[in-house]
Design goal:
Layout lengths: L2 H7 L17 H10 L2 H20 L9 H22 L9 H46 L1
Helix pairs in contact: 2-4, 3-4, 3-5
Length: about 140
């Protein structure tokens, strides 16, 4: 590495820029993205997205785009994914949530959660009915026959 790169990283001025120790104002976004890029941090964000889908979208019958915390989590996940290119290009921005994810993918995922919950409730009702029929079904069959 060029020693000048190390000096710039330490806060010294660049080559001929005359700016002195000016730090890029939004570089903290790139740094935050590097922290969020860690697999355990991304897993935590993804788990929170699923929890919000269950509690705020499915249970409260809301659309994903109407849940601000969901949009925030998506922005943080996008920041994690885009941070390397941001730092390479020195073009720092706080990305908007991906419209395809927010308007297409998350509603589809919420509908799958509803279908899974409905199937689980139906299976539970069938199991309860079968258990009740097995427990008291012998008397019913003799009375009708």
């Amino acid at each position: 590495r060029d020693p000048l790169d190390e000096a710039e990283s330490a806060g010294a001025g660049g080559a001929g820029g005359g700016a002195g120790g000016v730090v890029e104002p939004l570089r903290v976004l790139g740094d935050a993205g590097l922290v969020l890029r860690d697999p355990s941090a991304l897993h935590l964000l993804a788990a929170q997205v699923l929890a919000l889908l269950q509690s705020e979208v499915v249970a409260a019958e809301r659309l994903p785009r109407d849940v601000p915390d969901l949009a925030l989590l998506l922005r943080l996940m996008q920041l994690a994914v885009e941070c390397r290119s941001m730092m390479r290009d020195r073009d720092y921005r706080y990305p908007e949530p991906d419209r395809t994810v927010l308007h297409d993918l998350l509603p589809l995922l919420a509908s799958l959660l509803v279908e899974h919950h409905t199937a689980a409730v139906a299976a539970g009702m069938e199991a309860t009915a079968a258990a009740a029929a097995a427990a008291g079904g012998g008397g019913h069959g003799a009375a009708t026959g």
